[in-house]
Amino acid sequence: MKLLGCLFTVMIVSHTLSSELKILNLPEDQTGPAPCAMTCSGVSRYDETGYGIWGSTGSKAYKSVDIEECGFVSAPVVTAIVRGPFSTLYCSPIRLWYLYYKMLYFMTVENETPSNMVLYKCDVYWIATGYTC
Q1: Mean predicted confidence (pLDDT) in 74-96
Q2: Smallest Cα–Cα separation from 128: which of 82, 90, 76?
Q3: Phi then psi dihedrals of residue 101, to 5 deg
Q4: CA angle 17-21-22, nearest 5°?
Q5: How confident is the model over 15-21, as a mean pLDDT?
Q6: First to last CA, the chain
Q7: Contact residues for 54 (Cβ-Cβ < 8 A; gap 6+)
């Protein structure tokens, strides 16, 4: 009976520890082998320096995010939101402006200045799903 209990425990633990990620398609329609599927996520903070600063293009603010460490070999599927800590100050919504397997570029949907995105402490929370081989 103890052997059966141990076997049952191992089955539950191994099922709990295993995970499955299924990608139906990608922007460039280049799917890879299932073991290479990966989800990578992060937060691009409002006060980053270098390439990660809030910049401007015309009347919109934009932000670039380096995702090279994720190791994707083609453009991933990306979801992102912008969020600030204040309920009274408004972070303009964002959209994916340009997608590359090593970089993401987001642009505000509404007219906004980079200085307001920094003042309102607008961070970009992103999730990317793709293949690493």
Answers
A1: 92
A2: 76
A3: -70, -15
A4: 150
A5: 57
A6: 45
A7: 46, 61, 62, 63, 114, 115, 117, 118, 122
Say which amino acid occupies 44.
Answer: S
On the question of pLDDT at 101 being above 80, the answer is yes
pLDDT surpassing 80 at residue 10: no
Q: d(Cα 101, Cα 74) in Å, to the nearest integer? A: 5
Q: Are 92 and 124 in contact (CB under 8 A)?
A: no
Q: Is the pTM of this model over 0.90?
A: no
Instruction: Report the pLDDT value the prediction gives residue 38, as an integer from 0 to 100.
Output: 94
Concatenated DSSP letters of 102-127: SEEEEEESS---HHHHHHTT-EEEEE
70: helix, strand or coil: helix
Extract the tokens encoding 46.
């409002």
Residues 81-101 have a mean pLDDT of 91
Closest to 61 (Cα-Cα) out of 105, 112, 104, 97: 112
